[in-house]
């Protein structure tokens, strides 16, 4: 059997209202990144109680913009909203925390933390988000479930009734395209996805390679919200990919995202670039940076403030001094932000 025919049989399009619910909450958390949904987000937040808007932002900050919750709990399952929320309710505390931390920390490590094994200097230590969840996991779960239930009942249910036909039509068309040419269909999913020569390639901050013969299943999840993100997930033999569903006539914003503008502005200065280079190598305080740069501590503080506001630097107090460090993950995000804007 040819590899292309085998690939065709591995591809399954999955319509999941629960996944689309989470995608919509991600848009509400960061609307400026979604030009086709920016007008929708602004209109809806104007209708919502301020308290619910704030709670959506709070959960977004804890859960990587709601993205960590999109990790398929049941890969390939078409979950209704009530089924997805019920699954979250049933997760043991360690698995719930593992999900919120975007699976970046192993379950074994989280169990050790929950048992109070934080003093071992050789073990993995929780970061600020991990420490917060350890102390407030019960309250976070209660808030998350309350937000999901309220938002789904009061706002998303009506939106799903409107978008469901568009999603169904697009999913059916995509699956038909797969039958005609699996590689051509996959190549239509996103500008930074490429299927060819027996390998599936995805360009994010780094490039990922997935040989066809190592994949048992490729799930494709249609969404009217997730464009222009390349939202994907994978395990050893399973790949989950996005399918952007276009709804004709939606207002479209050409404006660049505010956080992209802040970061580019922060990088557009020689002194700030020199500071970032020093912070990239090691944390520094203003007293250390001033003589290295040949400027006053007040001038250093002014430049650091702009870098921190742009998310390119952070700080941590050690004794009497505030040490600044370079947020290296922000530079990976900056690459994606630029690509997403140019691809829109």
From TrEMBL:
Keywords: DNA-binding, Transcription, Transcription regulation
Top-rank taxon: Bacteria
Pfam family of the protein (one): HTH_5
InterPro entries: ArsR-like_HTH, DUF5937, HTH_ArsR_DNA-bd_dom, Metal_resp_trans_reg, WH-like_DNA-bd_sf, WH_DNA-bd_sf
Record keyword Transcription regulation present: yes
Classification via PROSITE patterns: HTH_ARSR_2
Ranges for domain HTH arsR-type: 252-344
SUPFAM superfamilies on file: Winged helix' DNA-binding domain
Protein name: HTH arsR-type domain-containing protein
Organism: Paenibacillus borealis
